Amino acid sequence: MMPGIEEVIARNPREFDARCHALMETSTAFRWAFTNGMWVFGVDSPGEMLAAQRDYHLRGIAEQIACPTLVCDAADDQFYSGQPRALFAALTCPKTFVSFTSDEGAGEHCHVGAHTLFHQRAFDWLDDVFAGADYRPSGARDAA
After folding, report:
1. Is 141 within the bounds of a domain?
2. Quick one: 34 and 69 in the same domain?
3. Are residue 81 and residue 124 in the same domain, yes or no?
């Protein structure tokens, strides 16, 4: 969340929501981001959406992840900048960090503009993780 935004919401939530709704009238990107976010979190206002995001984190959980984990970072992520690096630092399992840049066309949130590049890197990582691993269903393994 942007620094200081929680104080603005706490001080005057109606004004914050009114300003967001005004921006949603003029910006397709802003309208999509907040409309989609409110739908995802099941809330009715931009302020409620930002508040709901606070409960979605991996603090105290990341350390428990045991499987190999791929963490991807978009250099110019406008929503969650810095969070991939924080997650990567908290992981204690086998882990890989991949940065995507704007020069590659993949620097935005979710690597918009370069999904093919993201897919290639993710599938290459999966190939490396599963190389030589016996990942057949247990019944197939027993019958072999």
Report:
1. no
2. no
3. yes
40 and 82 share one domain: no
Total domain count, the chain: 2
- In 3D space, the residue among 108, 61, 57, 58 whose CA is nearest the CA of residue 81 turns out to be 108
pLDDT tens profile 85-112: 999 999 999 999 999 888 888 878 777 7
Question: Is the model's pTM score more than 0.70?
Answer: yes
Q: Give the amino acid at 140.
A: A
Helix (H) or strand (E) segment spanning residue 26: helix 13-26
Range of 68's domain? Answer: 62-130
